[in-house]
């Protein structure tokens, strides 16, 4: 019997768990639209789905968790950078000027 669905990605012995679209919402908290996921996948910004049957896309849980961890680290990094930039801006604006002097 030949299947019309795409084959599973390369063998993943260590991957024992898959996530459905519903699991992405309920377990992971990812509530973006399917169209957004498709755009992210096409751009290489989100793990690629594979299909259990013609209409059931799923993702490897470990890939999703790794993506979330990377996004978290990106956010922390950009937050630290933004905080440092704000601190420099505030420091510059608090320079003391003599009374009556123009800034």
In short:
The chain is mainly alpha-helical.
Helix and strand topology:
Blueprint: E1 18-20, H1 21-28, H2 34-42, E2 50-51, E3 57-60, H3 61-93
Antiparallel strand pairs: 1-3, 2-3
Largest sheet: 3 strands, antiparallel
The number of strands is 3
Strand percent estimate = 5-15%
* Average pLDDT level: 80
Helix content: 40-55%
How would you characterize this protein structure?
The protein has helices spanning 21-28, 34-42, 61-93, and strands at 18-20, 50-51, 57-60. By secondary structure, it is mainly alpha-helical. The chain has a domain at 18-77. The chain has a 3-stranded antiparallel sheet. Strand 2 and strand 3 (57-60) form a beta hairpin. The longest helix is centred in the C-terminal third of the chain and has 33 residues, at 61-93.
Descriptive keywords:
3 strands; mainly alpha; elongated; three-stranded antiparallel β-sheet; 9% strand; single chain
């Amino acid at each position: 019997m030949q299947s019309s669905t795409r084959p599973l990605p390369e063998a993943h012995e260590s991957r024992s768990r898959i996530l459905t679209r519903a699991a992405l919402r309920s377990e992971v908290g990812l509530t973006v639209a399917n169209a957004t996921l498709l755009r992210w996948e096409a751009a290489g910004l989100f793990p690629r789905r594979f299909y259990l049957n013609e209409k059931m896309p799923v993702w490897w849980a470990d890939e999703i968790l790794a993506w979330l961890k990377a996004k978290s680290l990106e956010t922390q990094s950009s937050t630290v950078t933004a905080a440092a930039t704000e601190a420099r801006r505030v420091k510059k604006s608090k320079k003391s000027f003599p009374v009556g002097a123009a800034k």
